[in-house]
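Deadline looming. Please check this record:
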Amino acid sequence: MRIQAPAKLNLCLFLGPRRDDGLHELCSLFEPLALSDAIEVSESGRDEVLCPGVEGENLAARALAALRAAGWDHPPLQLEIEKRIPVAAGLGGGSADAAAVLRLARGDLCVDTTHKSPRFDQAALAAGLGADVPSQLDPAPALVRGAGERIEPLPAPPPHAVVLLPDGGGLSTAAVFAEADRLGLGRSAGELATLAERLREAAGAGASPLAYTELLANDLEPAARSLRPQIGEALDALRAAGAPLAFLTGSGPTVAGLFPTLAEAESAAMRLDRGDTIVCEAGVAP
């Protein structure tokens, strides 16, 4: 069996107060991308996750281990991940892989209200793996709040496309948030609530994100640019190539340019003439 693990795009990211658990309150709009990792699933003598070219344990292996700990008794599996989503690039590739693994057991896990079973639901398993994993269980446009655990599905927008400049990836999410704290970035809980309502109203009717660009910003951009100054150059390049909207996605370093059509995105990519450019459809999973 071959399954897809689509990347996610943060159309905006608003940073709120730091919580007692060390995480930050956030408000973000997520949408899936046609860009995805492919995972080949086959039965094996033991559970094994292979990801050529990526060193160390990844979230997919942790997701499989979490399923086993929850009582999933499917025969052992080998999962081989073909990485297409750049690593540590702010596109949720590791979270996408983990969520795809959890989907393998869909229908097998349940919440046991009698407390006689060790099994838990997928949402609980996803939340235990990372802030971005719950939203990736069902890749679709969503308003995401809290530290990623509060997810409000939104209608699919009209077709549009994105040009991504990953800049080699490798920017630590923890380092970007630490730099944001050092710079004193962030908003009050009241500001986040107001922004969430405005985003809900704008995106709730299924409008293209290009119709409400004034609401799309990333509070982590100054912190990411402080750690990786060339992010600013990539944003300028996208704007010069004709992107109606260019922004940092997630904690970076990937920057994205939105375009009304795939043809316009491909034309802009040709003008950029960069080897790391990725062009794909946005708003719908593959």
